[in-house]
Amino acid sequence: MSHPVLIIGAGVAGMTAAVELADSGIQTILVERKTTVGGNALDLYKAFPTDDCFYCFEGNRWRPGIRKCFYRSALLDQPNLVLKTNTTIKEISGEPGSFTVVLSVGPQYVDAAKCIMCGVCLEHSKAFDIVSPQCQPQAVTYDPSKADDGAKRAAEECPTKAIDLDAEPSEETVNVADVIVATGYHEMQPVNIDEYGYGKIPNVITQLELAQMLDPNGVAGGVLTRPSDGEPVRSVMMVQCVGSRDENYYPYCSKICCVFALKHANIIVLERENISVSVVYMDIRTYDRHERYYREAREAGVNFIRGRVQIVRPSTSGGVEVVVYDSLLDRYLRFDADLFVLSSALEAPEGGSEIIKALGLRESSGFVAPANPESEERVIVGDHVYACGTALGPAEVPESVTQARAVVSKILQSRRG
Ligand SMILES: Cc1cc2nc3c(=O)[nH]c(=O)nc-3n(C[C@H](O)[C@H](O)[C@H](O)COP(=O)(O)OP(=O)(O)OC[C@H]3O[C@@H](n4cnc5c(N)ncnc54)[C@H](O)[C@@H]3O)c2cc1C
Ligand code: SF4
Ligand code: SF4
Fold first, then answer.
1. Phi, psi (5° rounding) for residue 364?
2. How far is Cα 293 from Cα 399, in angstroms, rounded to an integer?
3. Distance 256 CA to ligand 3 centre (A)
4. Ligand 1: does its nearest atom lie under 6 Å from the Cβ of 10?
5. In the structure, which protein residues have their CB atom closer than 6 angstroms to any atom of ligand 2?
6. Is there a single domain that holds both residue 181 and residue 194?
7. For residue 92, what is the enclosing H or E element?
8. I need a surface site. Which of 55, 110, 162, 218 has the fewest CB within 10 A?
9. Whose CA is nearest to atom 2 of ligand 3?
10. Are residues 385 and 290 in the same domain?
11. Residue 80: helix, strand or coil by DSSP?
12. Same domain, 209 and 252
């Protein structure tokens, strides 16, 4: 008898669990609500702790000894693995060990098996897009809300007839023995924190947006320019703990934002010419082996200011005027930055609480909580229900991968026993 496993979320954690379960001979259904797998890691450019490009992340070891393009190598040609993109969970019923799950499958406008990424549709209509050159499945996406006159022509001229503009959503029911929640995180959009001007002042951005600007494969081609007027960036100011460690938003420390802010500061100072970087912080929390990013940043001349940001407003030079209270100097300092970058909290993803409720799990600040808070088995969150990666709270990739492997090992052990 086959005992399939359902994995919700195809970020690094969900993909790791899926590939390793399937490699162990277990039927695995990997459900992803977006049209491409990879989750947040697709947008992060370089990765700590190895400084690799995120597509060749050593910490993953998707295939031992092969570090290239894990998104492609891991998910192809695996008969035990069914990947369902553009799909969400509608309903979960049944009992532990025998769940019945109704999947909502979104319209499959582009048949990924037929698309050869030739780009013909992209020339005709803005409704078609390539999420990333490395996207998996290797196919363009179609957004019906952007449909224009060229969309029909694109469908007609597609050489492989991969496009169906009339595609409809559907439902599918699957029966599974175990469920793994790998729904990940969302970078908080700090629109409600008025003092930082996010969403109002164009040169105020988040770290995830900065990562996309730094990426040579991104829309900006890796060149830092001011969103307001396209002028070259000469100075960057970052502010830590935006929405984290704050009783008005999230009381917890988001754990990895000090490290990724320093990663970005080092990339800018060491790899771009004549750009200064300042970081405003309460404490720098570079845990474990990541202390080296702090040391390198100080050696590279990144300016650290311990204090609080008081005022953020557009400056007369076209940048952002920032007034900071420096608690070490006990003085107010005034800066003119071209880019003001917010290290925003990592929060639970939209729809996460519905899945937590449907599976009867415990919850902590919106994330999935371990079934037994006293136990060290963090990944066991219910009877035949597991969680891994940032679905359990902020975590780096190696930790997410380690948790995914812990889940695989628990499932294999339970089936042997
Ligand atoms: C700016 C920034 C820089 C970072 N840099 C680094 C770094 O250099 N090194 C490092 O180790 N870590 C870094 N991280 C952390 C890294 O992004 C995470 O550790 C990693 O992406 C977590 O993977 P995950 O699979 O847990 O979650 P995610 O990447 O969030 O994936 C979750 C997936 O689940 C899907 N999903 C969610 N809900 C549903 C649902 N209901 N149904 C179906 N699918 C669903 C999502 O669409 C997504 O694809 C950084 C984070 C940020 C914000
Ligand atoms: S025209 Fe067809 S095959 Fe070419 S990229 Fe578009 S959908 Fe894919
Ligand atoms: S990791 Fe750093 S920036 Fe993030 S919440 Fe914790 S102390 Fe603040």
1. -140, 115
2. 18
3. 7
4. yes
5. 110, 115-121, 140, 158-160, 162-163
6. no
7. strand 87-95
8. 218
9. 258
10. no
11. coil
12. yes
Neighbours of 175 (CB within 10 A): 13
What number of other Cβ atoms are within 10 A of residue 186's Cβ? 18
Q: What is the pLDDT of residues 12-47, one digit of tens each?
A: 899 999 989 998 999 999 999 999 888 998 888 888
Q: 134 near 72, Cβ under 8 Å?
A: yes
How is residue 70 annotated by DSSP?
H
Write out pLDDT tens, residues 334-364. 999 999 999 999 999 999 999 999 999 999 9
**CA distance to 84, 320, 415, per residue, from 221 (Å):** 31, 23, 48
Find the 164 Cα to ligand 2 centroid distance in Å.
11
Write the CATH number for 22: 3.50.50.60
Q: What is the gyration radius of the CA atoms in the chain, in angstroms? A: 23
Return the closest-CA partner of residue 392 out of 358, 349, 350: 349
Dist. CA 118 → ligand 2 center (Å): 5
Residue in 132, 254, 256 to alter for ligand 1 test, most ligand atoms within 8 A of Cβ: 256
